[in-house]
């Protein structure tokens, strides 16, 4: 399959889901632009390193990388990821409970940045690594949410031809791990931990999800950990 | 009609459209919260004064006023309102041309702030003074855009019960002026000019729209102007 000449934007947090999403976008588009949102999370510095490492890996030039400070989310509050006064809670494995790390309506903010940037640079596709299975009840990780979002983008943009694509939304975490290995995507360059920047803590909800995914896939996580509990 | 006890958020830029929108919200809700976005526009300081003046007028306590810095829009560029290198162009009266002051997908960013805040404070309605007639081709001022946005909010929020209301969207500017007078809303506290903060310039597209509205309504604009051309 020959690649599209259209410019595509990838939202790259620095985690595994966005890595695989970028790897998939890279098979479909000749030219990629990477967007990273700094919304004041505790491990932002480490995630930004992963962002640049992954950009280097896929040959995305610095001129096509953008980091946007969205620390206004801190002013809205209501989330342990952005509110220093709330501790990050461990993952309870209960998908019905929307965790403290929930930033209300967060993905709309994130995708809106990408849509605005897409209008400016002429990109037609926006790839985001939203995953429904481990969304812990986030309403804005559901396929139906992205369907509604694409309908909104059609109405709210100049030419109505920008589309959000969620290539890993229906994958389980272990499938994402396997897909990354299959695509030779650099898992060792990613970062997932919400709590710690030197080694992954192994116990925050994001580490637990990640380790469970590797363990179910039967693959060793290349990242260093402070502790590496058995989750399965 | 008795007022709803539900808390309602009003997006208040400081202009006439948001004034009338707030006045209408005030007739329907016992408790209002005012949200102002500072997206780095040239006349922000003056608009913020109008925001607080209007909040005082409607008895909105300081605890229910929020100002969010959305200067990330500057980093996206592509607009004379947020990019200092582009001059504000005069209004051409051509609705088919999307003006330089267009921030791509701007209203989605703005409403998303309100939705996030609504989730945090428990507000169920969000009033925004979008006006289709003088939208100069902004796609995100169309009624169909707000219909799609409400569908998205239903999908992307915890309880799916937050609604955006656009009470002046189908009004012409002169109807907004007349409505403000009829509702005894304080037009003298508003600010519309994009270019100047001491007196309104009278010639930027926003001043032209405003003055045309007053002139068609046969009402004198209470604001001071550097010049006050006849637009009709």
Overall description:
The structure is a homodimer of 232-residue chains. Chain A starts with a strand and ends in a 15-residue tail after the last helix. The first copy, chain A, has helices at 16-28, 44-57, 72-76, 106-121, 143-156, 173-182, 205-217, and strands at 4-11, 29-38, 65-69, 125-127, 163-165. The longest helix of chain A is centred in the middle third of the chain and has 16 residues, at 106-121. Chain A is globular and about 50 Å long. In chain A, helix 1 packs across helix 6 (173-182). Chain A has one domain: HUPs (Rossmann fold), CATH 3.40.50. In chain A, helix 5 (143-156) links the parallel strand 4 (125-127) and strand 5. Chain A is of the alpha/beta class and 232 residues long. Chain A binds chain B through residues 66, 68-70, 72-73, 75-78, 98, 103-109, 112-113, 115-120, 139-140, 142, 144-145, 147-149, 151-158, 160, and chain B through 66, 68-70, 72-73, 75-78, 98, 103-109, 112-113, 115-120, 139-140, 142, 144-145, 147-149, 151-158, 160.
